[in-house]
Amino acid sequence: MGDGKRAKLSEQTADRLFEMIMDERAYAPGSKLPNENDLSETLNVSRTTLREAISFLVAQDVLVIRRGKGTFVADNLPSEVVDLTSLQHLHSRVRAKDLFEMRLIFEPATVALACERASDEEMEQIRRKALRVEEIAAAGGDWPAADQDFHLSIIRASHNEYMRRLYPILNGAVNEILQISQNRQHMQEIAIADNRTILEFLLQRDGAGARYAMSIHMKHLIHTLQN
């Protein structure tokens, strides 16, 4: 089995174990998990895959490894309410795709609102942020952070308070995914080309065009993550 397949299986195993702990309450907070042999048999995976799944959940503060004692469910589990910040610690293509799908749902609508509501000063700021992404990318700098800044400036210009508050929660996770992506160079090229198109429609205050350009941008990123 190739590394890619095993990585995917470990992510699925982490999701299954997460459900067993959080939803089914199969293992109570503070309790010790069964030994590796038994648990890998229960989940029908290899011990190597199980260890990788456990490391995902340790990063999420769901499990705790106590040297010489075993693996325990955390005493204080994360809230059952979906906590988007926890996604920042999961370096998984499955989660990454989910995250960009979420952006695909709300960012095209947001950019259309920005076309209607942005002041001239806000439009100028968005334009400067887009140029900044290109400058930083050309200098070999941290373009994902600059790219998120560009998207945040669009969201601010939509004047929708809920969207503005949601974005920083997503922001950290998106930034990390772009930082660790194997297709980082390809993503940089996509971001720069797509940003230019998005900006062109924005500056013309063409809501339908901007919405479409943002949808295409998110779909480009989703397809790249799947490759």
Q: What would you call the structural class? A: mainly alpha
- The dominant shape is elongated
| Radius of gyration, taken over Cα atoms and rounded to an integer in Å | 21 Å
Order of SSEs: HHHEEHHHHHH
Number of helices: 9
Round the mean pLDDT to the nearest integer and report it: 84
Overall tally of domains: 2
Main features:
Four Helix Bundle (Hemerythrin (Met), subunit A); 2 domains; 227 residues
Task: Explain this structure.
- The chain is mainly α and 227 residues long.
- The protein folds into 2 domains: 3-73, Orthogonal Bundle (Arc Repressor Mutant, subunit A); 84-226, GntR ligand-binding domain-like (Four Helix Bundle (Hemerythrin (Met), subunit A), Up-down Bundle).
- Helices cover 70% and strands 4% of the residues.
- The chain is built from 9 helices and 2 strands; from the N terminus they run H-H-H-E-E-H-H-H-H-H-H.
- A two-stranded antiparallel sheet has the order 1-2.
- A hairpin with a 3-residue loop joins strand 1 and strand 2.
- The two termini are 18 Å apart.
- The model is unreliable at 80-91 (pLDDT under 50).
What does the secondary structure layout of this molecule look like, with pairings?
Layout: H1 3-22, H2 36-43, H3 47-59, E1 63-66, E2 70-73, H4 93-117, H5 120-138, H6 143-157, H7 161-180, H8 184-203, H9 207-226
Antiparallel strand pairs: 1-2
